[in-house]
Amino acid sequence: MSGAATKPRLGIVVTSTREKRGGLAVAQWFDAFARAHGGFSTEFIDLLALNLPLLDEPNHPRQQNYERDYTKAWSEKVSATDAFVFVVPEYNYGMPPALLNALDFLYHEWTYKAAGFVSYGGLSGGLRSVQMAKPVLTTLKVMPIPEGVAIPFYTQHLAEDGTFNPGEKADKSATTLLDELLRWTTALASLRQ
Predict the structure, then answer these.
(1) 143 in the Ramachandran plot: left (φ > 0), alpha (ψ -120 to 50) or beta?
(2) For the domain that residue 28 is a member of, what is the CATH number?
(3) Is 44 helix (H, G, I), strand (E, B) or coil?
(4) Which of 24, 40, 155, 169 sits most deeply, having the most CB atoms within 10 A of its CB?
């Protein structure tokens, strides 16, 4: 956050890179919701478009001695962002490998930022993915907040045109998530300077 009048920057990260993934529609819904909420300026980040290979930097991320252009671009994007919402499905009771890889590419860029989750899936609504991601985030000094949005049986909320509308309960959860994420982001601002 560069100034008192500047809204903190929220990265909304689509973590599934599969073809025909549902996460794109879920993330687009949440991005529109976050923009209407008004507490953040948002940036839509799609890990598929980012196309990071399996971690291939020769130097440890703590050194920030990046050699690859895509790592430098990813570093700049994460550095410029004050908080994150990760839109996650559940892969075999865990988080998407693309998310773990994207996290592992960097270290200092993540420090002292808050993160929330919008998870989706079948019966569990992707919650096991969230639980797997939280310890990784805390190791990177990211504060994963408890509030989140879990959307079970998400395909029931997908329209034929690809739009996603999960309904009033998800809207209430999204408001709570954004309100709390804004509190944490504001509180952590002095640590990020």
Answers:
(1) beta
(2) 3.40.50.360
(3) strand
(4) 40
Instruction: Give the number of other CB atoms < 10 A from CB of residue 80.
Output: 12
Residue 3's pLDDT is 45
Residue numbers of the chain with a pLDDT score lower than 70? 1-5
Domain count, the chain: 1
The pTM score is: 0.95
Q: How far apart are the first and last CA of the chain?
A: 9
Give the pLDDT score at 135.
98
> Of 23, 7, 136, which is closest to residue 82 (Cα–Cα)?
7
Question: Looking at residue 161, what DSSP letter applies?
Answer: T
pLDDT in tens, 124-161: 999 999 999 999 999 999 999 999 999 999 999 999 88
Q: Please state the separation of Cα 173 from the chain's center in Å.
A: 16
Q: How far is CA 24 from CA 4, 161, 166, in A?
A: 32, 13, 14
Question: In sequence order, what are the residues at sequence separation of 6 or more whose Cβ sits closer than 8 angstroms to the Cβ of residue 112?
Answer: 141, 142, 143, 188, 191, 192
Q: The domain containing residue 146 runs over which residues?
A: 9-192
What residues does 150 pair with on adjacent strands?
A: 119
Lookup result for tokens 């020769």: 58
Give pLDDT, residue 162: 85
Q: What is the CA radius of gyration of the chain?
A: 16
Residue 4 lies in a domain: no
